[in-house]
Amino acid sequence: MSLKAITILILIFMIPAGVYSADTKDLTVDQILERVEAIYTASEFSAQFIQASTIKAMDISDSASGKLFIKYPGKMKWEYQEPEIQIITTDGDQLWMYRPADNQVMLGKASSFFSQGKGAGFLSDIRLLRKDFEIILEDIRFGDYYNLKLVPREQSWDIAYVQLLVSRKTFRIAQVFTYNAYEDVTRIELKDLTFNQTFGEDFFTFQIPAGVDVLRLDETPQ
User: Fold this and answer.
1) What confidence score (pLDDT) does residue 219 get?
2) How much is the pLDDT for 25?
3) Which of 128, 150, 181, 201 could form a disulfide with 157 if both were Cys (CB 3.0 to 4.6 A apart)?
4) 212, 222, 220: which is closest to 106 by C-alpha?
5) What domains lie within the chain, and their CATH numbers?
């Protein structure tokens, strides 16, 4: 059985009984996106996240969890709490990746880490969905969610397509699945979304602690 088929089965069994039959009128892709954009461009928000990744060829899986903070457009902070503390922050231009256990901060450009669907970067600027992807409303139904398949306009090995599950009632994004060309998959589940928050501009910058090793992600090895 393929990884995609297994993922579909897992999702089906995760859906609570009684929500599979929908009483919400079906909408077009454009109508769905309009409602999603209205939510994610109007308010700063936070969410708990659970991330699970599987490398198909090696049959390796791992998971992580923490809290996500978003300020439109382009600002994000991922605070990983499990299995170890890690902070990934961007102000829309600069990127900081801090790993206290390694006493290390990595610096780079946000575009190299979050562009074109990587790292679910479109959550901080939902308009990028229309810009970067061809979007298809899939027939396969996951309970009370719209199932959107996002195919990158520019093909690359690390993003073959992205799958979004969007609530039919609230139009909030519940899960993000990112598949690469080898059918490896990363799933991000968003829970306890809290909108109408206010974060200061300095919340999405990072002050490097004294004595921490600093590496640049864009440096060319000598």
Assistant:
1) 57
2) 63
3) 181
4) 212
5) 25-191 (2.50.20.10)
Least trusted range by pLDDT, from 15-24, 30-39, 42-51, 146-155: 15-24
- Running DSSP on this structure, what letter comes out for residue 143? T
From 178, 199, 147, 190, select the one nearest 27 (Cα to Cα): 147
| pTM to 2 decimal places | 0.83
In angstroms, the CA 198 to CA 195 distance is 9
CA dihedral 115, 188, 54, 215 (to 10 degrees): 50
Q: How far apart are CA 164 and CA 173, in angstroms?
A: 7
Alpha-carbon torsion angle 56, 110, 130, 202, nearest 10: 120
For residue range 48-90, what is the model confidence (pLDDT) as tens digits? Answer: 999 999 998 888 899 999 999 999 999 999 999 999 999 999 9
Gap between the Cα atoms of 103 and 196, Å rounded: 34
Burial track 175-199 (b if 16+ CB lie within 10 A, e otherwise): bbbbbbeeebbbbbbbeebeeeeee
* 3-state DSSP helix/strand/coil % of the chain, to nearest 5: 25, 40, 35
Rounded to whole angstroms, how far apart are CA atoms 138 and 71?
29
